[in-house]
Amino acid sequence: MGILNTVLRAVTWWNGQTLNTQFYTWRKGVKVGEDDQGNAYYTCRQGKRRWVIFNGESEASRVSADWHGWLHHTFKEPPTERPLAHKEW
Asked: Which residues contact 60 (CB under 8 A, 6 or more apart)?
């Protein structure tokens, strides 16, 4: 990793996680799961905050409905523990 990559990670969020996000995830994050696109989902030990580390481009539409509901505290358990029941329409 070069100096330019380190500087870019410190000041840009669209190239992946920033250094602050990486440090916060390392210190307080607990990985709860991963989706089919390789995005990793975390929560803090107290359970108040939830976030996603994207695999590649940071694009919110890459989050599935199951994980979106969990991220926004609509569902208490993550989809890895209690999958969302899908309707067969």
From this structure: none
